[in-house]
Design a protein that fits this description.
The complex is a heterodimer of chains A (195) and B (379). With 195 residues, chain A is an alpha/beta fold. Chain A has helices at 15-27, 42-49, 63-72, 89-98, 110-158, 162-176, 180-194, and strands at 7-11, 32-36, 53-57, 79-81, 100-105. The radius of gyration of chain A is 25 Å and the shape is elongated.
């Protein structure tokens, strides 16, 4: 169970990912979570939230902005990278792998944040998986459109049926040891050239 | 056997030797299969080098030193066995700030002393009028940009911590931050100074090589342990980068190189601006013809690829000066061993090229300041 008193600040420009992590942290018992999506007045938001733990996604170029704030500011308690503890190389690997940067306020006991960090890492991983699935699904949809267009072109040019057109694509792919989508792309681009 | 090397980089002009090593085949000639990965923040560059996602990276010189010292982050010994050029930075003022500076004696193309004096007067009169202090952007707390900007400001009588505000903004966002009035000036590497000048948002006030001739910039950084375990691979990469740097500096190749770097997967900025910067030509403000600034940027000449230990020591002196760290026993040795001219010499030995005799040199600044590597802490 997580420490419900920990104040957590989540800096993420991706609304869906932020929502997934926020929900995850709440389910894990965290009560004080602030999500920042807008980068302007970041400093102000940090001061207001007065966080014990800060998470930022690694795709965010403003990560460097955040690190400087810890360097110079007297108005925020000094957060430091979560991995200053030399023994904790496994955590830093896991976090970077998952795409999340983590900072804790100096002096906070490590046991108090271990669970929160693990929760963040696991939800970032979940999000990555969802995104991969979505990308694969989109790609499959795109591929199908190309195959449909290739079939249409073959049907028109050769006066053959749809299933023969597909058969032709498949046979050619097998003979040339290529994928159907690659043959379909060639058909579409060649047809474009001949117009 | 092919040697795989993965290198991280940030979209800036001085990633050029890495890009040319790949695109022009210098890496392949050395048997290296080079994979370049574009990154979005210096913090990511550091972390991905530490965890081993990247074997090597385009890195801020002071970042290698700070990480070896463990300032604010996991202490990991990093090394810099190769420098990715010298100079290339400039200080840009917003158009409104520039107009105020001109009223105080600044002039387009004037030296850092004249421009600095004018800026100091603007800063002073703002303070007297009770206005907010000026805000300057730079790219990272442990960067040459931060220290060069601070050096210049301090030398002309502006306290960089009290009289102005310094904020970090990623390079591609600087011109926009200036346009929207978030910042009044900034110090950054090309093409991000020219971008603001070209857009009529800012005016280039001075180059950092005018503040500190032959000033250092990025390095090739890697984990000390990786370098030990992969000596041959690293040597081969250093030879490839050395040849790439020579190729990059040849004016005959600037058009090709600029075109290469302009691609979205590399720098993603207009080729004409990149080509100007490669040829040390800058349009200081919108509507003016590019002027030649002969000592603006070196990729190979003047031993631009040599990792001078005096550079590392100067960064350390500035970390102390600006209270980023406190003096500690043993730190000087850590700093010295971060820059590795020994590896550079070893790697280039087969090429029979002329190399510097010493590992350190005296560094001289525009205000007649002198930095002696033998007394790095005396200021």
């Amino acid at each position: 169970m997580n420490d419900p008193l920990l104040r957590i600040l989540l800096v993420d420009q991706n609304a869906e990912r932020a929502a997934i992590l926020e929900e995850g942290l709440r389910e894990a018992g965290c009560r004080h979570i602030t999500v920042v999506r807008e980068m302007h007045s970041l400093m102000r938001r940090i001061v207001d939230a007065d966080p014990d733990v800060i998470f930022i996604d690694l795709e965010n170029p403003n990560r460097d902005v955040l690190e400087q704030m810890f360097q110079v500011s007297r108005s925020v308690r000094r957060p430091i990278a979560m991995f200053v503890d030399q023994a904790d190389t496994e955590s830093i690997h896991a976090a970077v792998e998952a795409g999340v940067g983590a900072y804790v306020v100096d002096g906070l006991r490590k046991e108090r944040v271990k669970n929160v960090l693990d929760t963040a890492i696991s939800h970032f991983k979940t999000f990555n998986k969802l995104r991969e699935q979505l990308e694969r699904a989109n790609q499959a949809l795109e591929d199908r459109k190309v195959v449909e267009r290739a079939k249409g072109i073959l049907m028109k040019e050769r006066g053959i049926t749809e299933s023969d057109a597909y058969g032709l694509l498949r046979t050619t792919a097998m003979n040339e040891n290529r994928r159907i989508i690659d043959i379909a792309r060639s058909v579409v681009s060649t047809a474009g050239l001949l117009k | 056997m092919r040697k795989n090397i993965t290198a991280g980089f940030i979209p800036l002009l001085d990633c050029a030797p890495l890009v040319a090593a790949l695109e022009q085949g210098f890496a392949a000639t050395e048997g290296i299969e080079l994979r370049l990965v574009r990154e979005t923040s210096w913090a990511n560059i550091r972390d991905r080098v530490i965890v081993g996602h990247f074997d090597v990276a385009h890195m801020l010189g002071p970042m290698a030193v700070a990480t070896s010292l463990g300032v604010g982050h996991l202490k990991t010994p990093l090394i810099a066995p190769f420098s990715l050029g010298l100079g290339g930075n400039a200080v840009t003022a917003s158009v409104p700030l520039w107009e105020q500076m001109v009223a105080e004696g600044a002039a387009l193309g004037a030296g850092p002393r004249v421009q600095g004096k004018a800026l100091a007067k603007v800063v002073e009169s703002r303070a007297q009028a009770g206005h907010e202090p000026l805000t300057f952007g730079m790219v990272y707390p442990f960067s040459c940009h931060n220290y060069e900007l601070r050096y210049w400001l301090a030398a002309v009588g502006i306290d960089p911590d009290r009289d102005v505000r310094l904020v970090v903004i990623p390079p591609p966002f600087l011109a926009d931050a200036m346009r929207t009035g978030q910042i009044d000036g900034y110090c950054v590497g090309e093409p991000w100074s020219s971008v603001a000048a070209e857009a009529g948002v800012g005016v280039i006030v001075t180059t950092t090589t005018a503040i500190w001739p032959l000033s250092p910039e990025k390095v090739l950084g890697c984990r000390a342990s990786w370098a030990t375990e992969n000596g041959e691979r690293l040597d081969a990469l250093i030879r490839a980068l050395y040849r790439a740097a020579l190729w990059c500096e040849d004016p005959a190749n600037h058009a090709d190189l600029a075109h290469m770097l302009a691609a979205a997967r590399y720098v993603g900025a207009p080729a004409n601006l990149l080509q100007n910067a490669l040829g040390s030509r800058l349009s200081l403000m919108a509507g003016t013809a590019p002027v030649s600034i002969p000592d603006f940027h070196f990729m190979a000449r003047h031993h631009a690829t040599f990792p001078w230990v005096s550079h590392a020591l100067w960064f350390y002196s500035q970390m102390l000066r600006w209270r980023q760290i406190e003096e500690a026993v043993g730190d000087i040795e850590v700093v010295r061993s971060t820059y590795r001219p020994q590896i550079y010499r070893r790697a280039l030995a087969p090429l029979n090229v002329e190399l510097p005799k010493a590992d350190t040199k005296i560094e001289r600044f525009f205000d007649e300041g002198v930095f002696s590597p033998d007394a790095p802490i005396a200021r």
